[in-house]
Amino acid sequence: QVQFVESGGGLVQAGGSLRLSCVAFGSTSNIIAFGWYRQAPGKQRELVAVISRGGSTNYDDSVKGRFTITRDYLKSTVYLQMNSLKPEDTGVYYCNVHPVRDDYWGQGTQVTVSS
């Protein structure tokens, strides 16, 4: 069982930056990949970025070139650096394994980008 705790969200103006953190508690040694997901108001949760155990990354087209996912193994933490933020990036951001496990969802962290 793994528990994720996200932090780092907030209110930022368009063009600004935020760095999200996700600490994983529990047994993470068998996890193949971690993902950051977001849920915009009135929309379904979507995958934003993925990082594999080997360090390879993939991004949704909407965030390519602006967001960077990284992982610190020693701290059991996954980060999402978000630059050049846009109002459409607004939503609750969650981390989970990839593919997701429904029993691993945390509380998420709210990101609001004002225009």
Can you tell me about this structure?
By secondary structure, the chain is mostly beta strands. It is built from no helices and 10 strands. The strands form 2 sheets. A 6-stranded mixed β-sheet has the order 2-10-9-4-5-6, with no helix packed on it. The protein has a 4-stranded antiparallel β-sheet with strand order 1-3-8-7, with no helix packed on it. A hairpin with a 6-residue loop joins strand 4 and strand 5.
For the record, give the distance between the C-alpha atoms at the N and C termini, rounded to a whole number: 40 Å
Mean pLDDT: 96
The main pleated sheet reads as: 6 strands, mixed
Secondary structure class reads mainly beta
Name the shape in a single word: globular
Rounded radius of gyration (Å): 13 Å
**Low-pLDDT residue spans:** none
The number of strands is 10
Output the helix-strand order: EEEEEEEEEE
Strand content: over 45%
Give the number of helices: 0
Helicity, as a percent range: under 10%
Strand order, biggest sheet?
A: 2-10-9-4-5-6
What would the keywords be for this entry?
single chain, 115 residues, mainly beta, 6-stranded mixed beta sheet, 4-stranded antiparallel beta sheet, 10 strands, 0% helix, 53% strand, globular
At a glance:
The protein has 115 residues and is mainly beta.
Present the secondary structure layout.
Blueprint: E1 2-7, E2 10-13, E3 18-26, E4 33-39, E5 46-52, E6 57-59, E7 67-72, E8 77-82, E9 91-97, E10 109-114
Parallel strand pairs: 2-10
Antiparallel strand pairs: 1-3, 3-8, 4-5, 4-9, 5-6, 7-8, 9-10
